[in-house]
Write a structure and sequence with these properties.
Layout (H helix, E strand, L loop, with lengths): L1 H23 L2 E3 L2 E3 L3 E3 L1 H14 L5 H9 L3 H8 L10 H7 L5 H14 L2 E3 L4
Parallel strand pairs: 3-4
Antiparallel strand pairs: 1-2
Helix pairs in contact: 1-6, 2-3, 2-5
Length: 125
């Protein structure tokens, strides 16, 4: 039983460490700030890229963030479809984002990805 608890604690610590490094793990290279590289599952990258492209057509940063997470999907879809096609929230994205403990970290990761483009797709397991 104690071994199981130790494993849970270790997994939680590792997960939390990866999240924090993906946000706060900045470095300096050749005298310039380098944002941390964020690794997202494919469904997350699809939403980021879809709405980031629309930012070039006038979608605001806040609007992109709201549509990417779509906490109220029906409302977001309604608003979005007035000017562009809606990208439904996939089960893969929901699985990634529906973690209450790390939601604010994931929101920060997406913000950094929208601003700096510092992300890549997670390798298939």
């Amino acid at each position: 039983m104690n071994k199981e608890i130790e494993n849970i604690v270790k997994d939680t610590d590792t997960h939390f460490e990866k999240l924090t490094k993906s946000i706060y793990g900045w470095s300096v290279k050749d005298g310039k700030c380098v944002p941390p590289k964020i690794i997202f599952p494919k469904p997350v990258v699809e939403r980021i890229e879809y709405f980031a492209e629309e930012m070039e057509n006038g979608l605001t940063f806040q609007g992109a963030l709201e549509y990417i997470f779509a906490r109220n999907e029906e409302h977001c879809k309604e608003e979005c479809e007035q000017v562009m096609d809606w990208l439904p929230v996939s089960d893969g994205f929901k699985k990634w984002s529906d973690d209450y403990f790390s939601y604010s970290f994931k929101e920060a990761q997406v913000m950094l990805a929208l601003i700096y483009g510092n992300y890549q797709v997670e390798a298939d397991k």
